[in-house]
Design goal:
The complex is a heterodimer of chains A (about 325) and B (about 325). Chain A folds into two domains: about 190 residues; about 120 residues, no CATH class. Chain A is elongated, with a radius of gyration of 30 Å. In chain A, a hairpin with a 5-residue loop joins strand 4 and strand 5. Chain A is of the alpha+beta class. Chain B has two domains: about 180 residues, no CATH class; about 130 residues, no CATH class. Chain B has ten helices and nine strands. A five-stranded antiparallel sheet of chain B has the order 2-3-4-5-6, with no helix packed on it. Chain B has a four-stranded mixed sheet with strand order 1-9-8-7, with no helix packed on it. Chain B is elongated and about 90 Å long. Classes of the chains: A alpha+beta (about 325), B alpha+beta (about 325). Chains A and B meet through helix 8 and strand 5 of A and helix 8 and strand 9 of B.
Chain lengths: ~325, ~325
C-alpha cells in the first residue's frame, strides 16, 4: 500500500468518525439539557419549553445522523446545524418573552442566527455547501455570545467570590457545540464543496481531458509502452469481450497534482492506435478527447535517455509528452 | 407564459397597486397629502404599469426599472420631511430612507450601464428599507402597544414594508435574479464540463437496459420530418447529461447521442451508430457496466446500477414509497 492509498483510507475513516462524533455531541448535550429540566424549578413556561424542545430536537437530529441512508459529512453537518439553529430559535423566543430592551436585542440576534443556521443547513442536506459563509458567521456570533456570557460569569465570580457551576456548564457545552461546527466548516471536505472549489475542479477536469500543460509528464516505463505501442504490446491487457478491441492499456499523465488518463486501444483490422483521454477512467467513460495515432516518435532512439515522445496522425502532429526525470534520477542514485 | 414573465407582471402590479393604494389613502385621508408624496405615488403607479405592460419579457430591464422606481419614489416621498417637517424622528427616518434610496438608485444605474452585474446589492438596500419600516413598528408592538389600534395608525408604514419585502422576494427568485460573476462562473464551468467530461460515478438505471438493448419501453417519439425515425431519452444519474437513443431511417443500427438531459436547446458532444454492445454479465439484472462500440476507435463505458437501491435521503425515500403506492 503506498502513501496515497494510506492517506485516502485514513481520511475516509476520519470522515466516518466525524459523522458519529457530531451525533454523540448532540446526544450528550441533549442528555445534559434533560438533566437540567429534571433538576430545575422553572418560574416561567418558556424556560421549561426551551430546554425540553431543544433536547428533543437534538436527539431527533442525532438519530437522523446515525440512521441516514446517505450518510456523509455534509449531511451530518446539515442535521447538526439544523438542531442548533432550531434550538437557538426556540431559545430566542424564550428570551424575547421577557420584555426588556436587552432581551429584545439578544433575542433578535439569536433568532437571526438560528434562522440563518436552519437555512444554511437545509442546503447542506442537499449535499451542497451553499451558505458556508453564513453558517460560519452564525457560529462565530453565537460563540462570541457564549464567550461574553462566560466572561460575565467570571466578573461575577471576581466580585461575589463564587459562581454556580450549573450556570457555567450550559454555556461551556453550547460553546463546544459551536466550536466543533466552526472547526468542521473549515475542513478540506467542506471547502472542496464550495462554489469556487467546484468550479476549479470542473475547469481542471476539462483541462486534463483536453490538454497537456507544462509540467505534465509520464514515467519512463509508461513512455516505453507508448513508444513500442506498434511493435510490442506485451504489457497491454488483452480484451476478449467479443467487441472490436484487441488490447487496451491505460496510462496516467500527471503534473504531480492534476492527473490526465490516457486509454490506448488496438482494434482488430486497424493499423492505428486509438487514444481516449479522460479526466477519470475508473467508472463511466463517455465524453473525452479522442484521436487516432499512426506514428510514435521518441526524441532519441535510445530507450533509456529520451526525454519526450511525440504522437502523429498521418501528416499531423498531435502532442508531445514529456518523460519524468524523477525515476531516472532515483535509478542513477541507486547505482552509485 | 414563462414563469419569469408572470413574476415580472406581478412585480409591476405590486408596485402600481401600491402607488394607487397610497394615492387613495393620501387623497381620502385627513393627515394631508404633500406634493412629494403625490409625485412618489404617481411614479409608482405609472412605473409599475410600465413594467407590467412593456418590460414583462425583459428580466434585466424590469429589475433595473423596479429598483429605480422604488428608489426615486422613496426619495420623492421623504425629501419633504427633511425641509418642512419639525418632527425630529420623522426627519431621522427620512434621512435613512433617502440614504438607502440614493445607494439603490446608484446600483440601478450601475446595472443599467453594466458597471455592476448582480442585483443582490440593490436588493440588500431594498431589504434595509423594508426593515427600517418594520423594526420600529414591531418594537413598539413589543413594548406593549395594543395591537389593532396601533396597526391602524401605522398602516402606511407596514404597507410600504410589505411592498418592499414583496419586491425583494419577487426579484430574488431564481428566474429573476441577475447573476453576479460567481454564479456565471458556476453556470458556465458546469456547461463546459458537461460538454467535455463525464463524472465517472454517473450511471443508468438497470431498468432502462431493456430500452437500450431491445427498443422496448415507453417514451419513443416518432418523427415524420428529417432523417431520424424515432428516439427516446434515457436518464443518466449523478450528472446533468442524458442519452438519446435514436433509430435513423434506412439504417438498421441504433444511434446513441450524449447531451444535456431535459434541455430545450442543446449541442451533442458525442454521437455514433452502435456497432457492438458488450456487458460484463450476461444476466441483465446483474450487469454492472455496459460498453458501446462505434467505429474508428469510439467507445463508451457506462455503469449500470439499480436506482431504487441507491442510498437516498429521508424525504426522497418517503417520496419514492408514496409514488410507488400511487
Amino acid at each position: 500500500m503506498n502513501i496515497e492509498e494510506s492517506s485516502q483510507r485514513l481520511i475516509s475513516r476520519m470522515k466516518k468518525g466525524t459523522v458519529y462524533m457530531l451525533a454523540i455531541i448532540l446526544i450528550l448535550s441533549s442528555a445534559y439539557e434533560i438533566y437540567m429540566v429534571y433538576m430545575a424549578d422553572y418560574e416561567d413556561e418558556w424556560g421549561f419549553l426551551d430546554e425540553t424542545y431543544s433536547a428533543v430536537i437534538k436527539i431527533i437530529m442525532a438519530e437522523f445522523i446515525l440512521f441516514d441512508p446517505k450518510k456523509n459529512v455534509l449531511r451530518a453537518i446539515g442535521f447538526y446545524a439544523m438542531s442548533i439553529g432550531l434550538s437557538r430559535v426556540i431559545n430566542s423566543l424564550s428570551i424575547l418573552s421577557q420584555q426588556s430592551t436587552f432581551s429584545l436585542v439578544t433575542g433578535l440576534i439569536l433568532l437571526a442566527m438560528g434562522i440563518n443556521l436552519i437555512y444554511s443547513s437545509y442546503n447542506y442536506l442537499k449535499d451542497t455547501t451553499r451558505g458556508r459563509n453564513g453558517m460560519l458567521l452564525s457560529a462565530c456570533v453565537l460563540s462570541a455570545m457564549q464567550v461574553i456570557t462566560l466572561l460575565l460569569y467570571y466578573q461575577g465570580y471576581r466580585t461575589a467570590g463564587s459562581v454556580l457551576i450549573d450556570d457555567i456548564v450550559p454555556s461551556v457545552i453550547m460553546l463546544v457545540q459551536y466550536i466543533v461546527l466552526l472547526l468542521i466548516l473549515d475542513t478540506e471536505e467542506i471547502r472542496y464543496s464550495t462554489l469556487l472549489e467546484k468550479t476549479s475542479t470542473r475547469v481542471e477536469s476539462v483541462t486534463s481531458t483536453n490538454m497537456l500543460l507544462k509540467g505534465y509528464a509520464i514515467d519512463r516505463a509508461d513512455a516505453l509502452v507508448i513508444r513500442h505501442a506498434f511493435d510490442d504490446r506485451s504489457s497491454w491487457s488483452p480484451v476478449s469481450d467479443g467487441g472490436p478491441v484487441e488490447a487496451e492499456k491505460r496510462i496516467r499523465i500527471s503534473d504531480g497534482r492534476i492527473k490526465s488518463n490516457m486509454i490506448l486501444q488496438k482494434w482488430y483490422g486497424s493499423d492505428k492506435i486509438y487514444v481516449t483521454m479522460v479526466n477519470d477512467d475508473s467508472g463511466t467513460i463517455m465524453l473525452g478527447n479522442r484521436f487516432s495515432v499512426t506514428q510514435i516518435v521518441p526524441e532519441t532512439d535510445d530507450d533509456g535517455s529520451f526525454s519526450n515522445i511525440r504522437l502523429f496522425d498521418g501528416g499531423r502532429m498531435l502532442m508531445q509528452i514529456a518523460v519524468s526525470k524523477e525515476n531516472d534520477t532515483k535509478a542513477e542514485g541507486a547505482s552509485i | 407564459m414563462k414563469r419569469s414573465e408572470m413574476l415580472t407582471i406581478l412585480l409591476g402590479l405590486v408596485i402600481a397597486g401600491a402607488g394607487l393604494y397610497f394615492m387613495f389613502r393620501g387623497v381620502s385621508g385627513d393627515k394631508g397629502y404633500n406634493t412629494g408624496e403625490a409625485v412618489s405615488h404617481l411614479i409608482m403607479l405609472f412605473g409599475g404599469t410600465f413594467i407590467a405592460l412593456l418590460l414583462r419579457k425583459d428580466i434585466r430591464y424590469s429589475t433595473i426599472a423596479a429598483v429605480l422606481i422604488i428608489g426615486i419614489s422613496s426619495m420623492a416621498s421623504n425629501i419633504y420631511y427633511i425641509f418642512f417637517s419639525d418632527d425630529q424622528i420623522a426627519i431621522l427616518f427620512a434621512d435613512i430612507y433617502i440614504i438607502f434610496s440614493v445607494v439603490m438608485i446608484y446600483y440601478g444605474v450601475a446595472l443599467l450601464f453594466h458597471t455592476s452585474a448582480s442585483s443582490v446589492k440593490a436588493l440588500v438596500c431594498l431589504g434595509i428599507l423594508a426593515a427600517t419600516e418594520f423594526v420600529p413598528t414591531l418594537f413598539k408592538l413589543y413594548s406593549g402597544n395594543d395591537f389593532m389600534p396601533f396597526i391602524n395608525t401605522n398602516m402606511d408604514k407596514l404597507a410600504y414594508g410589505i411592498v418592499h419585502l414583496t419586491v425583494v422576494i419577487i426579484l430574488s427568485r431564481k428566474e429573476m435574479l441577475l447573476e453576479g460573476p460567481k454564479k456565471r462562473l458556476d453556470r458556465n464551468s458546469k456547461a463546459l464540463y458537461n460538454g467535455r467530461c463525464t463524472p465517472s460515478g454517473c450511471f443508468i438505471d438497470v431498468h432502462d437496459l431493456d430500452s437500450l438493448l431491445d427498443d422496448s419501453g415507453e417514451g419513443w417519439i416518432t418523427y415524420d420530418n428529417g432523417p431520424i425515425e424515432c428516439e427516446r431519452t434515457i436518464s443518466l444519474y449523478e450528472t446533468d447529461l442524458g442519452l438519446r437513443l435514436q433509430k435513423w431511417k434506412g439504417d438498421d443500427r441504433k444511434h446513441i447521442a450524449v447531451c444535456v438531459y431535459g434541455a430545450d436547446s442543446y449541442t451533442i458532444p458525442l454521437a455514433f451508430p452502435i456497432e457492438h454492445i458488450v456487458m460484463d454479465n450476461e444476466d441483465r439484472s446483474k450487469v454492472g457496466k455496459i460498453r458501446f462500440y462505434g467505429d474508428e476507435g469510439v467507445f463508451m463505458d457506462i455503469l449500470v446500477k439499480d436506482y431504487d437501491e441507491q442510498p437516498k435521503g429521508y424525504i426522497e425515500t418517503i417520496r419514492m414509497k408514496y409514488l410507488k403506492k400511487e
